[in-house]
Each structure stands twice: as structure tokens, then as C-alpha cells.
Amino acid sequence: MDVRPIRPDEVEAYRDVRLRALREAPYAFSTTFDEAAARPESTWREFTHRLAAREELVGFVLDRGDGRLAGLATVRLEALSAEVNQMWLDEDLRSQGYAEALLAAAEDFARERGVVSIELWVEDDNPRAIRVYERCGYQATGEGEPNLRRGATLRFTKLL
Asked: By residue range, what is the domain housing residue 82?
């Protein structure tokens, strides 16, 4: 298993892992499976290339080594802050340190770009993810927003 930046030639692999995430955790993301599945290949290609360009948006993946991606985290950079999005892992790889490795890659990239704080949002009914984020040094801000589909999302931040 290898955590690394996504490559521009991984359009199909990115589409596959993203659709698996949306199917398995439909309430955790702002995009639905149906919306994403309906996107044309050109949209997937363009977004994958943006993630691979490593500019204001970057994607990190967990590579199984067989051409299939097993996890994903994207990072959007602002002036001095960053936000982690699309965080997801195949179920069989959870609780093995891979989520922490994806977060560390995102944090290292942000830190190298001069970012001083990083944030993410998590479903309030996802205690497993909340524990991962807390172990990695993220702290709940007390802020939350209603989820469009159910429950609420909670904001977590970490100083880099």
C-alpha cells in the first residue's frame, strides 16, 4: 500500500474510488452517487488533472498496487489555511493507519505551501472518523452545519 499524489492518467481509477465512496457513504458528501455517475468522462478527466496538478487543489490516494485505488483525500488550499475533502477508505482497510497516512500526506503538502491551519468537516454520527481526526490532533470547533440529507456536520481544525 502506498499513499501518494494522484496522477493525471488515473481518471478511471479516481472515478472508481470516488463512486465507491459515494455509494458506501451517501450522507458523508455533498455530491450524490447519481450526480457523480452521470458526469461525462471529460469532467472526470478535467478534475483528475486539476488534482494531479498540485496547485490550489491536490488529491492523495491509497494505492493497492494493483491499479485500484483504495482511498482518497483531497486538499483545497487558501492563503494560510486548507480544507480536507473527499476523505474515504475501502472498508477492509479501515483502522489500520491508512486514514492517518492520508491525512499526514495532506498536512505535509499544506505545510510545504505555507499553510498554518487545516480543517475538515465530518458527520456527527460518524464516531469512527471523529476518533481518527482527534488522534491526528484535530479539535472540534463547536461549529456545525445541517447536512442536506441527514444529521449535521461538525467542523474540526488543526494548527500546522
From this structure: 2-159
